[in-house]
Write a structure and sequence with these properties.
The complex is a heterotrimer. By secondary structure, chain A is α/β, with parallel strands linked by helices. Chain A is built from ten helices and ten strands. The chains are: A alpha/beta, B alpha/beta, C alpha+beta. Strand 3 (about 70-75) of chain A pairs parallel with strand 9 (about 225) of chain B, so a sheet runs across the interface.
Chain lengths: ~250, ~375, ~70
């Protein structure tokens, strides 16, 4: 049997989800954002929620998420996605409302919006891409940048006296009574991708069931910001990011 | 009177201007209020929480963690085609400017109420009009305008709430009620508007085809965004916005004249200053001095044409403001040097008295 | 004994040559092509198609959704 014989719709095992459109993504080669976008597209399709989805895009690399997934989007001001999502979900409670945010958006400028939306237990899902750096603006230090990690605004490495400690905001959010599901995942291997898909699906289901706020942090890479190949970025993430941001459920109620 | 009949008729009540806004918003089918407490306007949210409209009309009322958050909640609600509003006072409205710029750029309809207090900084809790520039010139970053209504009575607080939503949806642009602490705090008789049902989702989908209600199979995704990487594309957006503002200027100017027909001198003031000035005008008239009063009701669009016409008839003009002199610049632009335009103002929360305005009228205009 | 045979199709214009699929493939089927696509990326391609078992590991980790996977039991 030749390769051409195998390539037949009857034998299909994996293809781009229909909700992800054909617009090429602007992300750098190897960027974790694309994998998470794919998963969201797959889950919305699996849950048959395309007509009921209102997605909230951030400021940062994820700002153009609205170009890639064929659902209704609102692009929020920097850090304000949880406030925008709060209103959308409160006014349209039968919709699937989720935010898609990076570490600068969620854990720096939008800390108040994030914490208070979670504390109110808004029935939204928050997808949190944590790559420890500001990608869009050119690799500046983020609240989640690791100690000693170099960035364009910590060129000699982050130090506690100058910059304070890396912020484990997900751990903080797990303490809040409004959150029902707080988990930290990654997308660097097939197993990790499958787990993240399950986590996002659970977060979406929780929001539709009115259980409170769900947060799925995806520890991610930024090969451009980290100045490494995508492959080396994955290795660096496993070696350095995972000890600081260990994978697994922080809360599952 | 039966409950349903009561809901469909106008109702005369005695209340504060802030309370009138809350009642009028619920009655005109507002879907969502998002706010943060600040004096002198906290009664707006307090009244809504007391009235619990979520049990009657289904309106959402939510106390946010900051003005930043409340204006972005308004963005989220307005993006879904919902009638949404917030209210605050000067320092809080400063904090909202980012969100207001996004709402204007996203061409979303909403109502923002600013019950002004003395500034700058934390300032005072007493009435002021020093946010005129912020309201009518944009306020946040970029070229945009807010439809700005300036109520001068509790009745207008109610009426302007209804009108602001109408204009906001007509032009897909944020509208502001720019009141001062007196108009917010004082009690007067008010005829509340009749109840209108909130828009159904089908009505929103029809009237606001851009709204993010969820993408049915037959249409493309609706995307509310204010970002463009292409300068020429962004210029097109600006050209569209500016054309809209010109249309608003052509269609929506509102003002009121008092004894202007034979006036030799003209006083211009809005909100509380119009009421104070009216008294001063009456004092002058009692002495046979022909003074008239023009009260702008819309500050954007500004009654430029009406003021310009008066410039051909009167000897001089005076603007009275609770600021260091802000609206006076727009009056001088309208007059374009044809007659002197004097200014009298008090700042920081001090309200001018009719006697003061009367004295200024005589010294700066009549006896000059 | 039943044997599983797979095949992948890469959307070569969408591929950015990040190499993550090459690393993810347990059977070393994929390599980056020597020639680049119109955007200058050395896109992923099957070098050893006979070894593909259609596990889709490559497609799962692909950030650009440019890999379609097929498999048959022979």
């Amino acid at each position: 049997m030749t390769t051409n014989d195998i390539i037949n719709p009857a034998n299909l095992v994996y293809a781009k989800a229909p909700i992800m459109n054909d617009v090429p993504m602007h992300y750098c080669p190897g960027c974790s954002h694309g994998v998470v976008h794919k998963l969201i597209a797959e889950i919305i399709g699996d849950m048959d929620m395309q007509e009921k989805t209102i997605a909230i895009a951030p400021v940062g690399c994820g700002v153009f998420a609205y170009k890639y997934l064929d659902v209704d989007w609102q692009q929020a001001a920097h850090g304000r996605a949880p406030a925008v999502a709060t209103a959308a979900k409160r006014l349209l409670p039968d919709r699937l409302v989720f935010t898609y945010q990076g570490d600068g958006d969620l854990a720096a400028i939008g800390t108040a919006e994030t914490i208070h939306a979670c504390n109110r237990g808004e029935n939204i899902a928050i997808i949190f891409i944590n790559n420890g750096i500001y990608g869009m603006t050119g690799g500046q230090m983020a609240p989640t940048t690791l100690g000693g990690m170099k960035s364009s605004t910590s060129p000699n490495g982050r130090t506690v006296p100058l910059n304070g400690h890396p912020l484990d905001i997900t751990k903080l959010l797990a303490q809040l009574d409004g959150t029902c599901y707080v988990t930290r995942q990654a997308v660097h291997t097939i197993a990790a991708v499958r787990k993240t898909k399950k986590a996002i699906q659970k977060a979406f289901e929780n929001s539709m069931a009115g259980k409170g706020t769900s947060i799925v942090e995806v520890v991610s890479t930024c090969s451009s910001g980290w100045k490494m190949t995508p492959e080396a970025s994955n290795d660096w993430m496993v070696e350095n990011m995972f000890p600081a941001y260990p994978l697994g459920d922080l809360k599952n109620e | 009177m039966s409950e349903s009949k009561k809901h469909n008729t106008e109702e005369v009540r005695l209340m504060k201007g802030n309370e009138a806004i809350a009642h009028a918003a619920i009655r005109c089918g507002c879907d969502g209020y998002f706010g943060y407490p600040i004096t002198p306007q906290s009664e707006i949210m307090e009244t809504m929480m007391e009235l619990e409209p979520w049990n009657t009309t289904g309106m959402v009322v939510l106390q946010a963690e900051s003005e930043t958050s409340s204006i972005n909640m308004v963005y989220g609600a307005a993006g879904c085609g919902k009638k949404s509003m917030t209210s605050s006072s000067s320092p809080g409205v400063s904090l909202m400017q980012e969100g207001i710029s996004y709402i204007a750029a996203g061409e979303l309809p909403c109502l923002i109420v600013n019950v002004m207090r003395g500034g700058p900084g934390l300032g005072t809790i007493q009435p002021s009009q020093a946010d005129y520039f912020q309201a009518v010139k944009g306020g946040g970053h970029g070229d945009y305008k807010l439809i700005t209504l300036a109520p001068a009575s509790v009745q207008e607080m109610a009426d302007h709430t209804v009108l602001a939503f109408e204009l906001a949806f007509k032009y897909r642009t944020p509208a502001m009620i720019l009141a001062d602490g007196i108009i917010g705090q004082m009690m007067e008789k008010v005829v509340l508007p009749p109840f209108q049902p909130r828009m159904t989702e089908a009505e929103i989908a029809e009237k606001c085809p851009w709204a993010t209600l969820g993408k049915p199979a037959w249409r493309k995704p609706n995307i509310i965004t204010t970002l463009s990487l292409d300068a020429h594309e962004m210029e097109e957006t600006n050209i569209r916005l500016q054309a809209k503002y010109r249309e608003i200027e052509n269609n929506e100017v509102l003002y009121e004249e008092f004894l202007c027909d034979d006036a030799e001198y003209l006083v211009i003031g809005f909100g509380t200053c119009a009421r104070v000035s009216q008294k001063a005008v009456e004092m002058c008239r009692a002495e046979g001095i022909k003074v008239g009063l023009l009260r702008p009701i819309t500050l954007f669009p500004f009654p430029t044409v009406a003021i310009s016409k008066h410039a051909d008839k009167v000897k001089s003009m005076l603007t009275v403001e609770m600021s260091a002199g802000q609206m006076v610049e727009d009056v001088r632009l309208a007059v374009n040097g044809r007659v002197p335009v004097e200014f009298y103002g008090r700042m920081g929360g001090v309200v001018p008295s009719p006697d003061e305005v009367y004295e200024v009228l005589k010294s700066k205009l009549v006896n000059k | 004994m039943a044997k599983i045979k797979g095949a992948v199709v890469v959307n070569t214009e969408r591929c950015k040559g990040c190499n993550l699929c090459v690393v993810a493939c347990p059977a070393e089927v994929l390599i980056l092509n020597k020639e680049a696509n119109s955007k200058g990326y050395n896109f992923s391609t099957m070098a050893n198609p006979d070894d593909c078992v259609g596990c889709a590991a490559c497609a799962y980790v692909c950030p650009d959704a440019c890999i379609t996977v097929y498999k048959v039991r022979v």
